[in-house]
Structures are given as C-alpha cells and as structure tokens.
C-alpha cells in the first residue's frame, strides 16, 4: 500500500469515528432522557415511546439509513449525507440505550431511595446525588457494549455514499487490485477503537466494585 | 398541641390490600423521651414507624412532628413531594439494613443531606459530621467506603447520618436485627448515649434488656393495635394484658 492508500484509510477511520462518536454522545443522553420520561408513565407518550423503541430496535441499520436519506426530500428537507447517517445511528442507538438505562433504574435499591427520602431529599436531588452517580457506573458495561455494536454496525451508512472505514477499503482495492491489505488495516483500526472502549469499561468495573455490598 | 410534644399520632389506620395493619393508633412522644415499640413479627411496628415520615401513607389519622402536620398541607391538600421532603428533613430514620449510600465515603454519607437538603456550607457540614462521627466512634473511618465496614460500623455511620439533620425525632427500625450478635452491643451503646443526651427517639426493637434500660415509655403493638403502653418498670414487671405476659415469658431467655 502506498501513502495515498494509507491516508485514505485514516480518513475513513476518522469518518467512522466522528459520525459514530456524535451518535453515541447524543444517543447516551437521549436514551437517559427517554428512560426518565418512561419512568413518569405518561399515558399516550409512554405508548409512543414503546412503539419507537421496538421499531428502532427491529429495523436494520442499512434500511433505516436508506429510509431516512430517501424520505427526507418528501418532507421538504434536503438532508446532508453525514447528517442522515448520524440521524440513523442515533435513532438506533438511543432506543437500545433507553432500555439499558430503564433496566438500571428499575433495579436500583429501594432501600437507598428510602434513606434519601427519609433525609428530606426531593426526588430530583435523590436522582442527581444518589441514583445517577451509581447508575452511570452500573450502566456503563451495557452502554459500552452498545457503543461497540454501533461502531461495528456503522458501515451501514456507506449505503448513502458516506466513505467510512469499511467503504474506503473498496475504493483502495479498486485502484491497487489488492483487497486484502486495506481490509486487514481496517480490521486493526476497528479493533483499536473497540479496544479503547473496553479499556474504559475496565475502569468502570473497577469503580463498580465499591458499589457491591 | 403542647410545646413539649415531638411527635403526635392520632387515630392512625393503615391497610395493605384490604388487610388492616394499623388500627386507630394513638401515640404521643414528648421531647427528650425514648419510646420503644415492641410486638411480634407482623404486628405493624415497621409500618407505624414508616408512617411517621410518610414512607408509608396512612389511610386515616393525623401525624404531627414538632407541631407540623405531615402529609397534608396548611390548605388541607395532600402535600407535594417538595413539601413532604421539608417535613421529612425534620425526622431521622435508621433502618435495619443500614441503607448507606455505597458511592459515598463515610464523611460524605453524613454531609450529603445537610449540604444538598439544608443548603449548609461544606465546611460547616463537615465540621458537624466530624463531631457526630466522633460521637458514634467512627471518626477514624471518615474516608472509608461502606463496603469496607462491618455491620456495626455501618449502623453507627447511619446513625450519624440521621443525626446530621438535627432531627426533632430519631426513628429506629430494629437497628440491631441484621447484626452479628457480637456487634449488637456497640450499636446499642451509641443509642443509649444518645438517650442520655436527651435526643427524642422512637425505637422498634427485640432487645428486651435494652428496651427496659433506655425507655421512658414502652408500647406494645398487637395486630396493629396498641394494647399496652406503660413506663418500662410497669411494663416489664406488671403488664396488664395476658398477651404481653406471654410475649415477655417467650422473650425472656
Ligand atoms: N408494602 C407492603 N405491602 C403489603 N403488605 C405489607 C407491606 N408492608 C407490610 N405489610 C404487611 O403488614 C403487616 C405488618 O408489617 P410490618 O412490617 O409493619 O410488621 P413488623 O411488626 O415490623 O414485623 P417484623 O417484626 O417482622 O419487622 C405484615 O403482615 C406485612 O406482611
Ligand atoms: Mg419490621
């Protein structure tokens, strides 16, 4: 592989990284908000959220990406490719994250909540000071797991012409007629990205030990 | 309502799934008094205590804490969460299973509510916490996390945490029932010391010797009713009901 192939690969890796990164960042927070809203069990809104979550979880990423990109003009919106890609990944990962947060809420110790209430904490203070710091740590393994699923699923955005880390290997081999080297490098780069996540997870697990009584 | 009343419970009734667990309970706790609640398992002791700070919502009756009604506001409407939290802040509760917050060290377990509920400055809250941890014999463990403590140590921290709110009344729900026998003494000693300092306390316990030594008043619950209420001398030597006599005989040895 020559220098230009290397620089194309790195560019592809960057595209994968930033598009997934933005989707993950939005998706983690949005998932938390959805889980909180679901906690309130507001009649119609709750059913809408349940519908969204099951649809988003059941739809393949490729299909979702295509659908968003192709249907946007019908609503009079001219979607940038990258934006469409981010939207698709975010819609997908938010649904999974909402379920991860929700199950963490559901499993949170009633005793600890009662202790907080008995000390005069309002539900908001209880959430912010007692529940959230612990939920963050207990949810992190699930969240990181979902992050690596998302990154591994992200080549789906190539379907609308985004040149990500997987797609770029095609482009390189079209010129060099040697498909294997770029794919091997791409694999290594994916592994490096996921490896960083696993490392993050280790740190979280280390801190989680403290929560185990 | 007298100036000297810490807690007043009137006509309290509570059902779970149609089964009446508390029936017309009346109890007045004077400031500085220690009231112990005895009774066999399932008689409603925990429920009574949990009604006082509205962890359980009674069906009927009124509860006031230092003159402040809990659960119903001045307008006669059910209290909002915020109003409820304000009254709860004036009570301290110690649970059978300690219920410390595992992500906070000992010091921060004690300062958390004073800072985030009462709005105290960190320095002030920490000074008070050190004082209280000294009192319960835990000042050498301020930086430790709960999972490194023994049960007796956890419970003493939980007592300091509740005291940090300067509550009008301390509520103890079987504070030593989850402890290994050799750790019971250290917790009871702390509670005894508090009674000597004049704290108002309502204590559910199965420790008869302790109850006799520490109480100003002993109350016996049977199937959700108070069937006996007396000073400890009278209660333990001349109980007026056969039910209490039987209970004492069974719990003697
Ligand atoms: N949340 C609840 N839902 C349904 N029933 C309950 C609930 N809490 C308590 N009960 C029932 O109410 C009755 C009184 O319970 P409570 O816990 O007040 O008894 P207790 O005197 O504290 O008993 P113990 O000595 O075992 O702690 C019991 O029959 C119990 O099963
Ligand atoms: Mg009980």
Automatic annotation (TrEMBL), chain A:
Membrane topology reported for the UniProt record: Multi-pass membrane protein
Where does the record place the ABC transmembrane type-1 domain?
13-202
Example GO molecular function: L-cystine transmembrane transporter activity
Q: Which UniProt keywords apply?
A: Amino-acid transport, Cell membrane, Membrane, Transmembrane, Transmembrane helix, Transport
Subcellular location, in the record's words? Cell inner membrane; Cell membrane
Which InterPro entries is this protein grouped with? AA_ABC_transptr_permease_3TM (IPR010065), ArtM/GltK/GlnP/TcyL/YhdX-like (IPR043429), MetI-like (IPR000515), MetI-like_sf (IPR035906)
Q: Which NCBIfam families match?
A: HEQRo_perm_3TM (TIGR01726)
**Protein name in the entry:** ABC transporter permease
UniProtKB/TrEMBL annotation, chain B:
Membrane topology, from the record:
Peripheral membrane protein
Q: ABC transporter domain: from which residue to which, for each copy?
A: 7-248
Which SMART domains does the record cross-reference, listed alphabetically?
AAA
Q: Which GO terms describe its cellular component?
A: plasma membrane
Q: What superkingdom does the record give?
A: Bacteria
Q: Which UniProt keywords apply?
A: Amino-acid transport, ATP-binding, Cell membrane, Membrane, Nucleotide-binding, Transport
UniProt-listed InterPro entries = AAA+_ATPase, ABC_ATPase_HisP-typ, ABC_transporter-like_ATP-bd, ABC_transporter-like_CS, MetN_ABC_transporter-like, P-loop_NTPase
From the UniProt record, which GO molecular function terms apply? ABC-type amino acid transporter activity; ATP binding; ATP hydrolysis activity
In which broad location class does this protein mainly occur, judging by the first location in its UniProt entry? membrane
By sequence similarity, the record places it as follows:
Belongs to the ABC transporter superfamily.
Q: Sorted alphabetically, which PANTHER family does this protein's record hold?
A: AMINO ACID IMPORT ATP-BINDING PROTEIN, GLUTAMATE_ASPARTATE IMPORT ATP-BINDING PROTEIN GLTL
Instruction: Name it.
Output: Glutamate ABC transporter ATP-binding protein
Q: Which organism is it from?
A: Halomonas salipaludis
């Amino acid at each position: 592989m020559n220098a230009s192939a290397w620089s194309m690969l790195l560019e592809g890796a960057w595209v994968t990284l930033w598009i997934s990164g933005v989707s993950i960042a939005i998706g983690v927070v949005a998932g938390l908000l959805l889980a909180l809203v679901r906690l309130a069990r507001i009649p119609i809104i709750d059913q809408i959220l349940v519908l969204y979550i099951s649809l988003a979880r059941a739809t393949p990423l490729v299909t979702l990406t295509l659908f968003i990109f192709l249907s946007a003009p019908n609503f009079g919106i001219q979607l940038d490719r990258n934006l469409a890609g981010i939207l698709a990944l975010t819609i997908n990962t938010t649904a999974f994250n909402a379920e991860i947060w929700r199950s963490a809420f559901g499993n949170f110790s009633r005793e600890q909540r009662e202790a907080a209430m008995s000390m005069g904490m309002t539900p908001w203070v209880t959430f912010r000071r007692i529940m959230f710091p612990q939920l963050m740590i207990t949810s992190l393994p699930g969240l990181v797991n979902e992050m690596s699923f998302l990154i591994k699923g992200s080549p789906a955005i190539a379907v609308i012409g985004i040149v990500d880390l997987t797609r770029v290997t095609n482009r390189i081999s079209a010129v060099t007629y040697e498909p294997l080297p770029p794919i091997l490098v791409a694999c290594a780069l994916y592994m490096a990205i996921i490896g960083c996540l696993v490392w993050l997870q280790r740190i979280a697990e280390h801190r989680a030990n403290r929560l185990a009584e | 309502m007298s100036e000297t009343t810490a807690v007043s419970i009137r006509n309290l009734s509570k059902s779970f799934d149609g089964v009446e667990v508390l029936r017309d309970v009346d109890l007045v706790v004077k400031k500085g008094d220690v009231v112990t609640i005895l009774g066999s398992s399932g008689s409603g002791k925990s429920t009574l205590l949990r009604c006082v700070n509205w962890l359980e919502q009674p069906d009927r009756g009124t509860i006031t804490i230092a003159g402040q009604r809990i659960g119903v506001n001045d307008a006669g409407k059910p209290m909002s969460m915020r109003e409820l939290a304000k009254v709860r802040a004036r009570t301290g509760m110690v649970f059978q299973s300690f219920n410390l917050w595992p992500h906070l060290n000992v010091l921060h377990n004690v300062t958390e509510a004073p800072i985030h509920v009462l709005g105290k400055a960190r320095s002030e809250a920490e000074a008070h916490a050190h004082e209280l941890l000294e009192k319960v014999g835990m000042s050498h463990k301020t930086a430790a996390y709960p999972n490194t403590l023994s049960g007796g140590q956890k419970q003493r921290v939980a007592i300091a945490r509740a005291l940090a709110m300067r509550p009008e009344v301390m509520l103890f729900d079987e504070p030593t029932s989850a402890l290994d026998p050799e750790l019971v003494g250290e917790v009871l000693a702390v509670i005894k010391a508090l009674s000597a300092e004049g704290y108002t306390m309502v204590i559910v316990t199965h420790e008869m010797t302790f109850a006799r030594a520490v109480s100003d008043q002993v109350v016996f619950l049977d199937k959700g009713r108070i069937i006996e209420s007396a000073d400890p001398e009278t209660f333990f030597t001349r109980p007026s009901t056969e039910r209490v006599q039987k209970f004492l005989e069974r719990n003697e040895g």
